[in-house]
From TrEMBL:
Primary enzyme class: hydrolase
Annotated protein name in UniProt: Hydrogenase maturation protease
Organism: Desulfobaculum xiamenense
Lineage, uppermost ranks: Bacteria, Pseudomonadati, Thermodesulfobacteriota, Desulfovibrionia, Desulfovibrionales
Family of this protein: Belongs to the peptidase A31 family.
Keyword Magnesium: no
Key word Phosphoprotein present: no
PANTHER family, per database record: HYDROGENASE 1 MATURATION PROTEASE, HYDROGENASE 2 MATURATION PROTEASE
Keyword entries, A-Z: Aspartyl protease, Hydrolase, Protease
Length: 168
């Protein structure tokens, strides 16, 4: 199996009604609007679906998750989590979702016998507990281009390709 045969799933996670909680979905939307991706790369709004994503995740060889990550640093701090960092970080329930990625990945392995390689492109949220709003804080909005670049590098690293769309 060549790298281009490997299925890549890019998940934008979060609840867009809770400000910075929706950053993963907002970054995913920008990627979809700005680039075309190779056939082996699928971009999906994962929202806060948790276990509903089990089948989709188990069919992928590589999963790239874009999400808010609570690690206690300054709002806007960017993270790249994989391997042991991913296990340690997500084991402490620092995702703002009820069902975190690690639990969903473990369920994939239990149900299907397969757990794909995973990486999280994350950012420390500023506001995810105030009144519902579709607006992302300025601290996070200003970092969206960097998060997009991080996600594009991850896609390339595992055999996906992308090309900029022509502005219409």
């Amino acid at each position: 199996m060549t790298n281009t045969d490997k299925k890549i799933l890019v998940l934008g996670c979060g609840n867009i009604l809770l400000r910075d909680e929706g950053i993963g979905v907002r970054v995913l939307e920008r990627l979809q609007d700005t680039y075309d991706f190779s056939e082996n790369t699928e971009l999906v709004d994962g929202g806060v679906r948790g276990l509903i994503l089990t089948d989709m995740i188990s069919q992928a060889d590589h999963v790239i998750v874009i999400d808010a990550v609570i690690n206690g640093h300054e709002p806007g701090t960017l993270y790249r989590l994989d391997g042991d960092d991913l296990k340690l970080s997500l084991a402490f329930k620092n995702s703002v979702h009820d069902m975190d990625l690690l639990e969903t990945m473990c369920c994939c392995e239990l149900i299907t016998g397969k757990r794909p390689a995973a990486v999280v492109v994350g950012i420390e949220p500023k506001d995810y507990q105030s009144s519902p709003s579709l607006e992302i804080s300025e601290e996070l909005t200003s970092r969206i281009p960097e998060m997009m670049d991080m996600a594009l590098k991850e896609i390339e690293a595992v055999g996906g390709t992308w090309t900029p769309r022509n502005p219409s």
